[in-house]
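Milestone M4 deliverable, item 7.
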Amino acid sequence: MSKPPSPRMRKVNESLREIIADELTRLTDPGLGFVTITGVETSPDLRNATVYYSAMGDEEERKSTAAALVRSAPHLQESLAGQVRIKYTPRLRFEVDESIESGLRISELLRDLEEQ
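Output delivered:
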């Protein structure tokens, strides 16, 4: 089990999340569907960051969104470099945030149990 991030790292992670989410609204990539940036985890050395997201749509639309996020990584990193004063601009890696889907599934199961 990893230790929780320091207050400084939480602040860095939240700043990165806000900037990435804001920049995504400006992108014109047709493959980018309805996506929400749910969190960012930056490595302690600030060289890498995992960006967690959720995407709406069917499987094909979610794959298209994933590909669009990978294509947009260089632009997003450039935007981060210009807006955040940290030692390194992290390399971005995108990962689907499964917690939202899991939460919806649990709610559905509880609702089904309640009906029985």
